[in-house]
């Protein structure tokens, strides 16, 4: 099987011709592909190739959520953990996000030019190799560097998966495949903590990174045999200035967002300077792409209102999702006192909802329209996150589980229709680029969610707990107030040294009250963002006939 191109639909072809004159793939080439594209592959072959891609997506997507569960262990002193500081704990995640988001566009465009299967294999090999090395990282610094390398190779891997799906399937089959892809991405966020919790119960912290290498090894053998190669046959010249400007812009913006989350301040120079520099680079990138003969991303696609709103909706969706997962892991482990395994089990309803509802989203989009389906999903998320802002340490865990299931159900109604709109707007030869737009907006939104909701959580917690720490030396008061984990560690130490009750000040209870107050504010902000996304979709998004045609 060596099919190079699978055709876009007639509606997409006409729209792409209107949006961007001078498409890089001639219409004759599209027609030629239409006559020999999908038909050169049997249905069984496409299904097998799709299954391999889904397993790859599951493992890589799990990697981010796995880290949330292992953080507490990594903070412990060797040999149990790595003795990581609060800043290092944040950078275990930040290093991955920075490399991944900064190089996403480069990875997608490389797939267009050199072949999506080839970039998938390169991404798999590097991701698996650095996952294995992460398992045996001797220090926190080493683990940060290895996580960055994992993010770098994931930037080539993830865009290739969605691009290959758009080539494998057309019309209704593509919409169904994207629904399954969305379900796997969402479910991985909940399955990851469960897998990590099970491993940490029996093995050392590095075992959580050993999930990846065996799957990667199987994929490296199966992909060349069963997944066809796809690329833009016109082989346009590589847009080096565009690549450098896009990478610099995304790196600057993401780094600034990370700094804001780490420092709990959006006005400091370390936050404003990189974000401003990143925005300038993105503006210059857009101007360059408008003039370039072979742009890596034709920015005129953003004049399509549906395309732009779909991208923004995904960013706002993942703002609430990533920020929410960040909050709930602290709530379950630090407030409810659950183990890593029990925390993973508690997040499982989210995955079950995604698996149950995401494949049905395309049918709902046909019956009610993508606008109503996705807008309703965001309203469900807004209601669920607002209800989560009302929970406390005394709330029944079953209430939490139901709300988490509702969150997953809402997400499953938003992600497939909006993703389908993005990938169906760009021409087939730009499948890697459309995948990158989808992933970049998700990643930027998720990074903002962690930074904004994380800084709100940390700032409100600090404000609430610091007045209760006056009995501690001024030099360590700020450090103890930096997180509920730090406060609880001091409280445990005070209890173990049998200090007088008036010195202990019931610090455990006070830390719990301060965190509940802080998470109420953070969840409320998340709810407002989800509501804004619902209004954006319901008020401004317009369905195309192509949306219904592809879903039928």
TrEMBL record:
Membrane topology: Multi-pass membrane protein
Source organism of the structure: Bifidobacterium tibiigranuli
Transmembrane segments: 48-71, 91-109, 121-144, 150-169, 181-205, 211-228, 240-259, 271-288, 309-332, 338-358, 370-391, 397-415, 444-461, 522-541
The keyword Membrane belongs to this UniProt entry's keyword annotation: yes
Compartment annotation: Cell membrane
Keyword presence, NADP: no
Protein name: MFS transporter
One cellular component (GO) term of this entry: plasma membrane
Compositionally biased intervals (Polar residues): 16-37
PANTHER family (UniProt xref): EXPORT PROTEIN, MAJOR FACILITATOR SUPERFAMILY MULTIDRUG TRANSPORTER MFSC
């Amino acid at each position: 099987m060596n099919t190079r191109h699978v055709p876009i639909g007639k509606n997409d072809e006409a729209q792409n011709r209107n949006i961007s004159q001078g498409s890089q793939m001639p219409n004759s080439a599209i027609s030629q592909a239409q006559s020999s594209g999908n038909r050169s592959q049997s249905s069984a072959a496409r299904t097998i190739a799709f299954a391999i891609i889904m397993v790859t997506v599951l493992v890589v997507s799990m990697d981010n959520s796995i880290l949330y569960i292992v953080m507490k262990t990594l903070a412990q002193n060797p040999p149990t953990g790595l003795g990581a500081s609060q800043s290092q704990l944040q950078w275990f995640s930040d290093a991955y996000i920075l490399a991944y988001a900064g190089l996403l566009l480069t990875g997608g465009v490389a797939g267009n030019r050199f072949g999506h299967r080839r970039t998938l294999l390169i991404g798999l090999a590097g991701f698996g190799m650095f996952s294995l090395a992460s398992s045996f990282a001797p220090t926190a610094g080493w683990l940060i560097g290895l996580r960055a390398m994992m993010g770098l190779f994931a930037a080539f891997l993830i865009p290739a998966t969605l691009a290959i799906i758009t080539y494998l399937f057309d019309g209704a089959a593509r919409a169904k495949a994207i629904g399954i892809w969305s379900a796997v991405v969402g479910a991985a966020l909940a399955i990851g903590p469960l897998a990590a919790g099970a491993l940490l119960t029996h093995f050392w912290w590095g075992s959580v990174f050993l999930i990846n290498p065996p799957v990667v090894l199987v994929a490296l053998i199966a992909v060349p045999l069963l997944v066809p190669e796809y690329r833009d046959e016109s082989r346009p010249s590589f847009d080096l200035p565009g690549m450098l400007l896009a990478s610099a812009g995304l790196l600057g913006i993401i780094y600034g967002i990370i700094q804001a989350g780490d420092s709990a301040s959006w006005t400091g120079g370390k936050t404003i300077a990189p974000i401003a520099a990143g925005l300038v680079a993105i503006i210059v990138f857009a101007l360059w792409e408008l003039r370039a003969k072979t742009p890596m991303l034709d920015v005129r696609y953003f004049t399509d209102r549906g395309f732009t709103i779909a991208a923004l909706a995904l960013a706002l969706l993942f703002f609430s999702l990533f920020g929410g997962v960040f909050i709930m892991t602290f709530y379950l482990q630090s407030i409810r006192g659950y183990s890593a395994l029990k925390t993973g089990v508690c997040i499982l309803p989210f995955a079950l909802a995604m698996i149950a509802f995401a494949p049905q989203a395309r049918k709902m989009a046909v019956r009610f329209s993508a606008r109503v389906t996705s807008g309703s999903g965001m309203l469900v998320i807004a209601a669920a996150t607002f209800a989560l802002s009302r929970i406390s340490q005394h709330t029944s865990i079953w209430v939490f589980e139901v709300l988490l299931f509702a969150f997953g159900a809402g997400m499953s109604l938003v992600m497939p229709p909006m993703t389908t709109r993005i990938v169906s707007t760009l021409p087939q030869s730009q499948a890697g680029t459309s995948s990158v737009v989808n992933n970049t907006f998700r990643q930027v939104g998720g990074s903002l969610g962690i930074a904004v909701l994380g800084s709100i959580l940390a700032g409100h917690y600090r404000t609430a707990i610091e007045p209760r720490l006056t009995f501690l030396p001024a030099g360590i008061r700020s450090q103890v107030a930096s997180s509920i984990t730090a406060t609880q560690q001091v409280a445990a130490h005070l209890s173990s040294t049998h200090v007088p009750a008036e010195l202990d000040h019931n610090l455990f209870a006070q830390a719990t009250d301060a965190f509940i107050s802080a998470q109420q504010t953070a969840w409320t902000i998340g709810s407002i963002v989800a509501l804004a996304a619902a209004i954006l979709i319901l008020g401004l998004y317009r369905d195309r006939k192509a949306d219904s045609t592809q879903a039928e």
